[in-house]
Amino acid sequence: MGIRRPMSSGIGVWELFGAISGSRRVWHYTEAIDSLKNSRRIKSVIIKVDSPGGLATASDLLYSAVSRLAARKPVVVFVSGVCASGSYLASCPAARIVALPTAVIGSIGVISMRPILQDLLGRIGVHVDVTKSGRLKDMGSYFREPTEEEKRKEEELVTGFYDYFVAAVARGRKMEEAKVRDLATGEVFLGEKARGLGLVDEVGDFERAIEIASELGRVRRRLIPMRHRPSFYERLFPQFSGESVEDALAQAEGLLARRVFYLG
User: With contact defined as beta carbons under 8 Å apart, do 170 and 176 qualify?
Assistant: First the structure.
């Protein structure tokens, strides 16, 4: 019987690139983050971010997963391009955030949008008949204008998401909520200004992120990339299971629905 060598420990690396959607992609993301959390080999983690954010609920799933990871081992976020809205929310539990000088940071805010196709439907002779159990049951419908009551309810909903976002940033960045609200106008900042405002810790490159992760995790500079393992179905039918197909289906599904975004 041969001697089994122990597997070397190192720094886990995971990428958050592109928009955060509500498709299966976000579940792949949370599974990958949980794998990093549970791996005995991985002593610290670098999350490489270049994302404008996305759906509020999907962003919150990532925020919760990163929070669980950060409670177990050091997490360093490295921003190579954009870290805005939902992706910034997901980055806030990290021990350190490092950004390139030209990285775009922030866009702390919420936006709710939906199309209203009332005029178009009228032109083509389409009428929508609704039977509902409560006066607000069809709130957010695409076939009519919202009522004043519905507008107020929508504003309350957006305010709830906004308050949650602000509290999460304040908690993660160890800032007063009042200061976060001053910055939470939806605007973005370049790396150096974001550092001065307390939204990131350092301006630097990926090598600097590796140094910090090595120091915090007390581990040598050995990178262990985390990659998505395709399922049997994805291997059998790759042309129908790619993320581009998933994204297209998710976008088509959401065309007529009210969606709330943490999106930069």
Answer: yes
